[in-house]
Protein backbone atom coordinates (compact mmCIF):
# COMPACT_ATOMS: atom_id res chain seq x y z
CA UNK A 1 0.00 0.00 0.00
CA UNK A 2 1.24 3.48 -0.89
CA UNK A 3 0.46 6.23 1.60
CA UNK A 4 0.60 9.97 0.94
CA UNK A 5 0.96 12.06 4.10
CA UNK A 6 0.16 15.72 4.62
CA UNK A 7 -0.68 17.99 7.57
CA UNK A 8 -1.62 21.57 8.37
CA UNK A 9 0.98 22.32 11.06
CA UNK A 10 3.78 22.51 8.51
CA UNK A 11 6.74 20.44 7.40
CA UNK A 12 8.63 20.89 10.69
CA UNK A 13 5.75 19.80 12.93
CA UNK A 14 6.33 17.10 15.52
CA UNK A 15 3.01 15.46 14.71
CA UNK A 16 4.04 15.00 11.08
CA UNK A 17 7.27 13.31 12.14
CA UNK A 18 5.32 10.95 14.40
CA UNK A 19 2.83 10.11 11.66
CA UNK A 20 5.55 9.41 9.10
CA UNK A 21 7.22 6.95 11.46
CA UNK A 22 3.93 5.28 12.37
CA UNK A 23 2.80 5.03 8.74
CA UNK A 24 5.88 3.06 7.64
CA UNK A 25 4.34 -0.04 9.19
CA UNK A 26 1.42 0.11 6.77
CA UNK A 27 3.01 0.82 3.41
CA UNK A 28 5.39 2.85 1.30
CA UNK A 29 5.28 6.46 2.44
CA UNK A 30 5.65 9.78 0.66
CA UNK A 31 5.06 13.28 2.06
CA UNK A 32 3.59 16.49 0.64
CA UNK A 33 3.31 19.04 3.44
CA UNK A 34 2.95 22.82 3.75
CA UNK A 35 6.01 25.02 4.13
CA UNK A 36 4.30 26.99 6.90
CA UNK A 37 1.49 26.32 9.36
CA UNK A 38 -1.93 26.30 7.67
CA UNK A 39 -4.20 25.81 10.69
CA UNK A 40 -7.85 26.79 10.19
CA UNK A 41 -7.36 27.26 6.44
CA UNK A 42 -10.08 24.69 5.85
CA UNK A 43 -10.25 23.46 2.24
CA UNK A 44 -8.78 26.54 0.58
CA UNK A 45 -6.54 26.19 -2.47
CA UNK A 46 -4.32 28.73 -4.22
CA UNK A 47 -5.56 29.82 -7.66
CA UNK A 48 -4.46 33.49 -7.84
CA UNK A 49 -0.68 33.17 -7.44
CA UNK A 50 2.08 30.72 -8.17
CA UNK A 51 3.04 28.09 -5.61
CA UNK A 52 6.65 27.50 -4.65
CA UNK A 53 7.37 23.80 -4.30
CA UNK A 54 10.64 22.12 -3.41
CA UNK A 55 11.81 18.59 -2.69
CA UNK A 56 13.32 17.92 0.72
CA UNK A 57 15.43 15.24 2.39
CA UNK A 58 14.05 15.97 5.86
CA UNK A 59 12.68 12.41 6.04
CA UNK A 60 15.50 10.03 5.18
CA UNK A 61 14.64 7.78 2.27
CA UNK A 62 11.13 9.23 1.84
CA UNK A 63 10.10 11.31 -1.15
CA UNK A 64 9.03 14.65 0.32
CA UNK A 65 7.51 17.72 -1.32
CA UNK A 66 7.36 21.02 0.56
CA UNK A 67 4.48 23.12 -0.73
CA UNK A 68 4.03 26.82 0.02
CA UNK A 69 0.26 26.46 0.22
CA UNK A 70 -2.51 24.57 1.98
CA UNK A 71 -2.96 20.86 2.82
CA UNK A 72 -5.50 20.52 0.01
CA UNK A 73 -2.95 21.90 -2.45
CA UNK A 74 -0.36 19.45 -1.14
CA UNK A 75 -2.62 16.55 -2.12
CA UNK A 76 -3.51 18.19 -5.42
CA UNK A 77 0.15 18.70 -6.31
CA UNK A 78 1.00 15.07 -5.62
CA UNK A 79 -2.01 13.86 -7.63
CA UNK A 80 -2.15 16.36 -10.49
CA UNK A 81 1.28 17.98 -10.51
CA UNK A 82 3.45 14.91 -10.03
CA UNK A 83 0.95 12.19 -10.95
CA UNK A 84 2.10 10.17 -7.97
CA UNK A 85 0.53 6.79 -7.38
CA UNK A 86 -0.94 6.33 -3.90
CA UNK A 87 -3.76 4.37 -2.31
CA UNK A 88 -4.40 6.13 0.97
CA UNK A 89 -4.01 9.64 2.43
CA UNK A 90 -3.00 10.29 6.02
CA UNK A 91 -3.33 13.84 7.34
CA UNK A 92 -1.86 14.98 10.68
CA UNK A 93 -1.13 14.29 13.40
CA UNK A 94 -2.60 17.68 14.27
CA UNK A 95 -1.59 19.46 17.47
CA UNK A 96 -5.11 20.01 18.79
CA UNK A 97 -8.44 18.25 18.34
CA UNK A 98 -10.53 18.60 15.21
CA UNK A 99 -13.98 17.90 16.61
CA UNK A 100 -17.52 19.08 16.09
CA UNK A 101 -17.86 22.37 14.26
CA UNK A 102 -14.06 22.71 14.09
CA UNK A 103 -14.18 20.10 11.33
CA UNK A 104 -15.38 22.86 8.97
CA UNK A 105 -12.29 24.99 9.63
CA UNK A 106 -9.68 22.25 9.87
CA UNK A 107 -6.84 22.11 7.37
CA UNK A 108 -6.07 18.62 8.67
CA UNK A 109 -9.53 17.33 7.79
CA UNK A 110 -9.35 19.19 4.47
CA UNK A 111 -6.16 17.36 3.56
CA UNK A 112 -7.95 14.06 4.07
CA UNK A 113 -11.07 15.30 2.28
CA UNK A 114 -9.00 16.32 -0.74
CA UNK A 115 -7.71 12.77 -0.77
CA UNK A 116 -11.31 11.62 -1.21
CA UNK A 117 -11.84 14.19 -3.95
CA UNK A 118 -8.93 12.72 -5.92
CA UNK A 119 -10.48 9.29 -5.53
CA UNK A 120 -8.59 7.85 -2.55
CA UNK A 121 -9.49 6.74 0.96
CA UNK A 122 -8.24 9.04 3.70
CA UNK A 123 -7.79 9.38 7.44
CA UNK A 124 -7.30 12.60 9.42
CA UNK A 125 -5.51 12.27 12.76
CA UNK A 126 -5.61 14.84 15.56
CA UNK A 127 -4.40 14.86 19.14
CA UNK A 128 -4.75 16.84 22.35
CA UNK A 129 -2.96 20.18 22.00
CA UNK A 130 -0.88 19.46 25.10
CA UNK A 131 0.67 16.24 23.86
CA UNK A 132 0.73 13.27 21.50
CA UNK A 133 0.80 10.55 24.18
CA UNK A 134 -2.53 9.03 23.20
CA UNK A 135 -1.74 9.08 19.49
CA UNK A 136 1.68 7.51 19.97
CA UNK A 137 0.45 4.80 22.30
CA UNK A 138 -2.76 3.90 20.44
CA UNK A 139 -2.05 4.60 16.76
CA UNK A 140 -1.56 0.94 15.90
CA UNK A 141 -4.61 -0.01 17.98
CA UNK A 142 -6.72 2.40 15.95
CA UNK A 143 -5.35 1.16 12.64
CA UNK A 144 -6.03 -2.44 13.69
CA UNK A 145 -9.58 -1.41 14.62
CA UNK A 146 -10.10 0.35 11.27
CA UNK A 147 -8.86 -2.61 9.27
CA UNK A 148 -10.57 -5.28 11.41
CA UNK A 149 -13.95 -3.57 11.05
CA UNK A 150 -13.33 -2.60 7.40
CA UNK A 151 -14.25 1.01 8.15
CA UNK A 152 -12.62 2.32 4.99
CA UNK A 153 -14.91 0.11 2.94
CA UNK A 154 -17.86 1.97 4.45
CA UNK A 155 -16.54 5.55 4.38
CA UNK A 156 -14.12 7.55 2.25
CA UNK A 157 -12.89 9.81 5.05
CA UNK A 158 -12.35 8.99 8.71
CA UNK A 159 -11.68 11.67 11.31
CA UNK A 160 -9.72 10.30 14.29
CA UNK A 161 -9.13 12.24 17.52
CA UNK A 162 -6.84 10.98 20.29
CA UNK A 163 -7.20 12.12 23.92
CA UNK A 164 -4.07 12.00 26.06
CA UNK A 165 -5.45 9.21 28.25
CA UNK A 166 -7.47 6.52 26.54
CA UNK A 167 -10.39 4.46 27.86
CA UNK A 168 -11.35 2.93 24.53
CA UNK A 169 -12.55 3.64 20.98
CA UNK A 170 -15.95 4.97 19.89
CA UNK A 171 -17.51 5.45 16.47
CA UNK A 172 -18.95 8.93 16.87
CA UNK A 173 -21.04 11.54 15.11
CA UNK A 174 -19.91 15.12 14.60
CA UNK A 175 -20.85 17.06 17.71
CA UNK A 176 -20.58 20.67 18.83
CA UNK A 177 -17.59 22.22 20.60
CA UNK A 178 -19.56 24.99 22.38
CA UNK A 179 -16.83 27.50 21.57
CA UNK A 180 -17.16 30.96 23.16
CA UNK A 181 -15.79 32.96 20.22
CA UNK A 182 -15.05 36.64 20.62
CA UNK A 183 -12.79 39.32 19.14
CA UNK A 184 -10.07 41.14 21.07
CA UNK A 185 -8.47 44.36 19.85
CA UNK A 186 -4.73 44.88 20.27
CA UNK A 187 -2.34 47.26 18.50
CA UNK A 188 -4.95 48.28 15.98
CA UNK A 189 -5.84 44.71 15.03
CA UNK A 190 -8.54 42.25 16.01
CA UNK A 191 -7.78 38.73 17.18
CA UNK A 192 -10.24 35.87 17.42
CA UNK A 193 -10.12 34.36 20.88
CA UNK A 194 -12.09 31.91 22.95
CA UNK A 195 -12.08 28.32 24.09
CA UNK A 196 -14.23 25.22 23.71
CA UNK A 197 -16.46 23.89 26.46
CA UNK A 198 -16.60 20.15 25.82
CA UNK A 199 -18.32 19.63 29.16
CA UNK A 200 -21.48 21.24 27.72
CA UNK A 201 -21.85 18.34 25.27
CA UNK A 202 -23.84 16.40 27.87
CA UNK A 203 -26.80 15.20 25.86
CA UNK A 204 -25.09 13.94 22.69
CA UNK A 205 -23.50 10.79 24.07
CA UNK A 206 -22.79 9.61 20.52
CA UNK A 207 -20.79 12.73 19.53
CA UNK A 208 -17.06 13.05 18.94
CA UNK A 209 -16.86 15.88 21.50
CA UNK A 210 -18.46 13.76 24.23
CA UNK A 211 -16.25 10.80 23.38
CA UNK A 212 -12.96 12.70 23.59
CA UNK A 213 -14.07 14.57 26.72
CA UNK A 214 -14.55 11.15 28.32
CA UNK A 215 -11.15 9.86 27.17
CA UNK A 216 -12.33 7.83 24.19
CA UNK A 217 -10.65 7.90 20.81
CA UNK A 218 -13.33 9.22 18.45
CA UNK A 219 -13.55 7.86 14.91
CA UNK A 220 -16.03 9.82 12.81
CA UNK A 221 -16.94 8.90 9.22
CA UNK A 222 -17.18 12.03 7.11
CA UNK A 223 -18.66 12.72 3.70
CA UNK A 224 -17.51 15.22 1.10
CA UNK A 225 -21.06 15.46 -0.26
CA UNK A 226 -22.54 18.53 1.44
CA UNK A 227 -26.10 17.74 0.31
CA UNK A 228 -28.65 17.80 3.10
CA UNK A 229 -30.28 14.54 2.04
CA UNK A 230 -33.25 14.82 4.41
CA UNK A 231 -34.07 18.30 3.08
CA UNK A 232 -33.42 17.22 -0.52
CA UNK A 233 -35.79 14.27 -0.29
CA UNK A 234 -38.45 16.38 1.42
CA UNK A 235 -38.18 19.07 -1.28
CA UNK A 236 -38.43 16.53 -4.10
CA UNK A 237 -41.43 14.89 -2.44
CA UNK A 238 -43.17 18.21 -1.83
CA UNK A 239 -42.62 19.47 -5.36
CA UNK A 240 -43.78 16.16 -6.86
CA UNK A 241 -46.98 16.33 -4.78
CA UNK A 242 -47.60 19.92 -5.83
CA UNK A 243 -47.12 19.04 -9.49
CA UNK A 244 -49.84 16.39 -9.19
CA UNK A 245 -52.42 18.97 -8.16
Q: What labels describe this entry?
A:
245 residues; single chain; 9-stranded mixed beta sheet
Descriptive notes:
- With 245 residues, this protein is α/β, with parallel strands linked by helices.
- It has a single domain, classed as Survival protein SurE-like phosphatase/nucleotidase (Stationary-phase Survival Protein Sure Homolog, Chain: A, 3-Layer(aba) Sandwich), CATH 3.40.1210.10.
- The protein is 30% helix and 25% strand.
- The chain has 7 helices and 11 strands.
- The strands form 2 sheets. A 9-stranded mixed β-sheet has the order 3-4-2-1-5-6-7-11-8. Strands 9-10 form a two-stranded antiparallel sheet.
- Helix 2 runs parallel beside helix 3.
- The radius of gyration is 19 Å and the shape is globular.
- The model has no long low-confidence stretch (mean pLDDT 95).
Chain-wise SSE layout:
Layout: E1 2-6, H1 14-23, E2 28-34, E3 53-56, E4 64-67, H2 71-81, E5 88-95, H3 107-117, E6 121-127, H4 133-148, H5 151-154, E7 157-162, E8 168-171, E9 182-186, E10 189-193, H6 208-213, E11 216-222, H7 229-244
Parallel strand pairs: 1-2, 1-5, 2-4, 5-6, 6-7, 8-11
Antiparallel strand pairs: 3-4, 7-11, 9-10
Helix pairs in contact: 2-3
User: SSE order in H/E notation?
Assistant: EHEEEHEHEHHEEEEHEH
Largest sheet: 9 strands, mixed
CATH architecture: 3-Layer(aba) Sandwich
Helix content: 25-40%
In the predicted model, the low-confidence regions spanning at least 5 consecutive residues are none
Q: C-alpha Rg, in Å?
A: 19 Å
Span between termini: 56 Å
Sheet with the most strands: spatial strand order: 3-4-2-1-5-6-7-11-8
CATH topology value: Stationary-phase Survival Protein Sure Homolog, Chain: A
Question: Going by CATH, what is the homologous superfamily?
Answer: Survival protein SurE-like phosphatase/nucleotidase
Total domain count: 1
Strand percent estimate: 25-35%
Under CATH at level 1, the class stands as Alpha Beta
Amino acid sequence: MRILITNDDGIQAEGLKILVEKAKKYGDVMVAAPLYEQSAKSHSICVRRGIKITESDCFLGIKTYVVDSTPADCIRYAAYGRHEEFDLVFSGINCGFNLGDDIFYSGTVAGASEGALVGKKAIAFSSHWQGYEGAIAYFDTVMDYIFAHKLLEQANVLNVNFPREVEGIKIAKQGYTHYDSHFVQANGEYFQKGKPHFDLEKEKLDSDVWAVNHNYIAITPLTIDRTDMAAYQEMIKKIANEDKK
